Every structure is written in C-alpha cells, then in structure tokens.
Amino acid sequence: MVELKTDAALDAMRVAGRVVADALEAARAAAAPGVRLRDLDEVARTVLREAGADSPFLGYRPSFAPTPFPAVLCVSVNDAIVHGIPDGTRLRDGDLVSVDCGALVDGWAGDAALSFTVGTARPEDQRLMDTTRRALEAGIAAAVVGARIGDIAHAIGSIGRAAGYGIPEDFGGHGIGRQMHEDPSVPNEGRPRRGMILRHGLVLAIEPMFLAGGKDDYYAAGDGWTLRTTDTSRAAHFEHTVAVTNEGPRVLTRA
Predict the structure, then answer these.
(1) What are this entry's molecular-function GO terms (predicted)?
(2) Does residue 83 form part of some domain?
C-alpha cells in the first residue's frame, strides 16, 4: 500500500533527514587510513543519540538476512556494494567506501547514502562516484508530479549503462515514511512512462548503485548481509530521501 504524506509529515521527515545527513558527514569526516569500520559506526551512533533519534538499521532483519543487522551504519568497502557490516577492518589509503544510514525521529524515517575515497582517489574510482552521483541527481529531477516510477528508473539506468557500469537488478530504491521500507519499489533501470504515477506527497528513497566492472552479478558474503561484486570490481552507492511535491522534488536528506 502506498501512503501519500501530508505537508506536515514532509516537514517531520525533513527533521529525520537532517539527522541522517549529519551522521553521514560525520562518518565521512572520521574516515582515514587506520580507522576501523566500527569506529565510523560509533561516530554515527553518537550523532543519532545526541539528536534523540533511533536507528531503523539496528536490529533490522528482512527475510534474506540470517541475523539482525548489528549496526546503525552500513559500511561497504571497495567490491562491497551495499549492506556491509562495520567490523574491525581498518581503512587503507585509496579505499572506496560507501556509507548508508537511517534515522527515526518522532516516528518518521530518513535514509541516505554516499560514497567517498579514503586519502588519494584513483581516477577510475572518482569517475565511478561522479557518475553514480549524477545518476542520483537525474533520478531526483525525474521525481515530479505526473511522471512515473519508470521515468526515475530510466533516468538512473541510462546514465549507468552509458558509462559502461553494471547495475544489480534486485536492489534499488523504495518508498519511505513511518517505515524505512515502504511501497513502491524504485528500480535503478527501467522503461520511461511505465509504472505508478507520481503524486504530491509520495516519498521515495532513490538510490543508484553502480558496479565498475560492467557486470550486474553479485553474491552475498559469508555474513549473509554484505553484497559483493562477483568480478571483484569496485562499487559506488548514493541515496537521498526525496518527496514528490507540486513545487518539484524536495530532497529531505541534504545537509
């Protein structure tokens, strides 16, 4: 069931979105060679706690997961696409890191992600991140009243494919509101003018993820959560929570 949010609800979700933005920026600022992945999670926990926010990630257990997620932050490094568990692994110069975070404030959710390089970026990693970020912005621009879900999917996918990147088929964006994951699903590839019509008050988490090797294949690592590229190529992931409004797309998770 798709729920359209009131303008007051969008304002409330913006509060949660700011917390998410702050947590992601704090994690990025803390990332440096030698820092453990779990240290980034502790940074995000502090931001959420000081804001009076809860985490929709911590303890989350969808049908595919063997165990509840143990952190407030997903930290996916290099060939990890999404859902990386922050552990004792230490960051190294040149690592490509994707961090994904959610927050719950007064019963409303926000969800966003970003990718960055620790230390010196390889040119190919910078291109991958820039392209994925550009696809996110194209998806946001397509999230207008009267458009369709397929328009968002097409905007994202056409940029990824033109750059020669892979797109994991079974993972993409989603509705968001009282719950972190709500209807509808938002694929990262599709045909324009297909799917549900977008209306004022619809809130979507739009999240392209591209694989540098050009293949779409991935596998679940031994922890049952982390998704990795089968060819060991690197991945990037960007996400914003976006409200469809009569005034145009409203990004609720920008800083």
Answers:
(1) initiator methionyl aminopeptidase activity; metal ion binding; metalloaminopeptidase activity
(2) yes
- In degrees, rounded to 5, the angle at the alpha carbon of residue 28 between the alpha carbons of residues 25 and 34 is 155
Domain CATH for 205: 3.90.230.10
pLDDT digits (tens, 9 = 90+) for 108-137: 999 999 999 999 999 999 999 999 999 999
Binding residue positions for substrate:
83, 181
pLDDT at 64 over 90: no
- Is 2 among the domain residues? no
- Which residue intervals of the chain are DSSP H helices? 7-30, 37-50, 123-141, 149-162
How many domains does the chain divide into? 1
**Residues 6 or more apart in contact with residue 73 via CB below 8 angstroms:** 23, 27, 40, 41, 44, 45, 57, 86, 99, 100, 101
Q: Confidence class of residue 17 from pLDDT cuts 50, 70 and 90? A: very high
3-state SS, residue 76? strand
pTM: 0.97
Name the residue among 217, 253, 249 with its Cα closest to residue 232: 217
Range of the domain at 23: 7-251
Which residues participate in the annotated binding site?
83, 100, 111, 174, 181, 207, 239
Residue 1 resides in a domain: no
Binding positions for a divalent metal cation are: 100, 111, 174, 207, 239
